[in-house]
Amino acid sequence: MFKKFLLKLLWLYQKFFTLLGYGSCRYYPTCSEYAKINFENNSISSAFYHTFTRILRCNQLFEGGIEYPLLDKLSLKPTEIGVDSIKYWLVPNKKNRFYIIKNFSFKGKMC
Amino acid sequence: MTPNQRLMIAVVLSILFFVAYTFIFPPKEAQNEKSNQVNSQSAINTQDSSAAQPQVAKVEEAVSHNISSDEKMAANDLSTLVTITSGKFILKLDTLGRISSKVLLQDKYNDKDDKHAQLIPDAGAKPLFIRFLDPALNEEAAKVPYKTTHSELLVDNGSQKVTLTQELLSLKVTKEIVFFADGHYDVKISLSEDKRYFVYLGQRPRITEQMMTISGAMVYTDNEIVTIIKDGDAEGRKTFTGVELISAFDQYSATIMYGFSKDTNIIVERDRDDNPVIYFEALKDMIFSGYIGQKEYKTLNSINPVLTNAIEYGWFTFASKPLFQLLSWLHGIFGNWGWSIVALTLIIRAVLYPLTYKGMVSMQKMKDLSPHIKELQKKYKGDPQRMNAAVMDTYKKHGANPLGGCLPMLLQIPVFFAIYRVLLNAVELQGAEWALWISDLSRMDSTFILPILMGASMYYQQKLTPSNFTDPMQEKIFKFLPIIFTFFFLTFPSGLVLYWFVNNLFSITQQFIVNRQFKNAKEAEIATHKHAEKKDD
């Protein structure tokens, strides 16, 4: 429930309030997108932590650029698989964790 | 019509409606306020008495009892007993021993109709009003007028003492009040016999209430906790002990009482409109102090430092208070609040300079990359997410990131909010002129020049800032932002508009300096390059 509420808030922010400081984010995915993916895939506490540290890093003293969110825990429970139904690609990195990368061919609802 | 166009029309229409509405119906007319008060007056008293009795009395009973006594009081309250005059105010005590009027004589504090500010509203509980717990005694007290020896007093420097006495059948009430020229007073109330009674703080002033400011009642306790009960938010009955000061306030002025003993019971009650009403249970011999006037930091601090806690900037006080101190310090240097605001803006920009400078430098770097970016934008047309990814990759490769980042953006929000609250609540800005046509920083600019300048500077600043929008609708709204802001700022106090305008100016200037530095550096580079080429020839 709480997660859903937070995701709705993020959606609201991305749709409207982002205009006030448009084009500020130094990262890809943007801080709000990063937060959204985190809240969708990880626990609330972990998502809060990562989002918070990401925002702290999002200033001129850091380089910015591409920084994908990481998955905390892998769980396999796909009901159907196809290139259109996959929302995120999980790409393993060197430290045995997974980057969460958006699937641009995903046809379902984004939120 | 596309959905985008429809949305734009909706936005513009709603803004027009908002502006027109505020012009036709200015927020909160003082007159309406008064008539409301008259209606609710009886309600205040009934609620108080029913709640104050230890056993819960039937409400209907209390109502019928109290309305009658209240009418008698209303008939009485026209008669003034004592008039205290000073260079800055005229204060009146009525025959019920209450402060029935306090008018500030300085023109800068004038109300909307340009009359001298009256701090005590016509209706409702008045400061120093005494109510006995015993209904019979209470009724008698409402009929018997107070007596005094002097009816006209002049306070120029120092103080004047007034002694009021009320001779009831079984009781003698004495109020010894010492009035000071700075607006505060010391009171000693003594009863010839021990009776339970309550002293009222009185209704809050109703002079200025702008949008987004709070008004209501406040209780400040010795553990440094401020409890604010906003008008319309009062719930039931609350009792406080260990209280340092109680205050009923509007935007700029307040009725305050302080200096009572720690074990005094302060009671906050609500009236029919859910507005707070404060009174306290007094002892046989009760000594305390009060202040009625503007919430001016220097005045309050010189009377008693505890009074400065009555200056309230909303829930953001912790950040606004130091900011006001800084502004006040700057005022000590410049002697003009307008220039102090300009200086404050400069200081804030100087603090943020390292961040903004770095951002601007990398923005220049990005200009060199722009052909490449355009290429990418063409390549990933219709796929904004992937385009962003590609653009970010390019930035990273070239070590340039034009964007300020989310943190600086988020950091500026509380700073702006704190300034906003200071400029909105600082009474010192009343009647404070800046330069040229700005004669009062606390009021809106009636010529609209400053808000329009603000909008223009914002538009220009936007033009200087590169933006790569992926959503055409967002881009349109973004371009309309300066216009929306101009309309919003039309009714804001000039001081606030001044801050925003000057902030834009500084940021434009900074941009220009960076641009020039880059141009010079580039020219120098080209020159040396050519020089080298010539050598090769």
What is the secondary structure topology, with strand pairs?
The complex is a heterodimer of chains A (111) and B (537).
Chain A: H1 2-15, E1 27-28, H2 31-41, H3 44-57, E2 65-66, E3 70-71, E4 88-92, E5 98-102
Parallel strand pairs in A: 1-2
Antiparallel strand pairs in A: 3-5, 4-5
Helix pairs in contact in A: 1-2, 2-3
Chain B: H1 3-24, H2 30-52, H3 59-76, E1 80-85, E2 89-94, E3 99-104, E4 130-132, H4 135-143, E5 152-154, E6 159-167, E7 172-180, E8 184-191, E9 197-200, E10 216-221, E11 226-230, E12 238-240, E13 243-249, E14 253-258, E15 266-270, E16 276-282, E17 285-294, H5 297-303, H6 317-334, H7 337-379, H8 384-397, H9 406-425, H10 449-464, H11 472-490, H12 494-536
Helix pairs in contact in B: 1-11, 2-3, 3-4, 6-7, 6-9, 7-8, 7-12, 10-11, 10-12
Q: Which range best describes the helical content of chain A: under 10%, 10-25%, 25-40%, 40-55%, 55-70% or over 70%?
A: 25-40%
Helical amount of chain B: 40-55%
Taken as a percent bin, the fraction of beta residues of chain A is 5-15%
Q: What portion of residues of chain B belong to β-strands?
A: 15-25%
- Sum up the overall morphology of chain B in one term: elongated
Strand order of the largest sheet of chain B: 6-7-8-17-14-13-10-11
> Which radius of gyration of chain B do the C-alpha atoms yield?
30 Å
**Helix and strand run of chain B:** HHHEEEEHEEEEEEEEEEEEEHHHHHHHH
Tell me the strand order in the biggest sheet of chain A.
3-5-4
Oligomeric state as shown: heterodimer
Q: Would you count the extended β strands of chain A for me?
A: 5
Structural class of chain B: alpha+beta
Poorly predicted spans of chain A: none
Q: What is the makeup of the main sheet of chain B?
A: 8 strands, antiparallel
What is the end-to-end distance of chain A?
14 Å
Q: Describe the sheet with the most strands of chain A.
A: 3 strands, antiparallel
Number of separate strands of chain B: 17
| Arithmetic mean pLDDT of chain A | 78
- Poorly predicted residue ranges of chain B: 26-77
Mean pLDDT of chain B: 73
What's the Cα radius of gyration of chain A? 14 Å
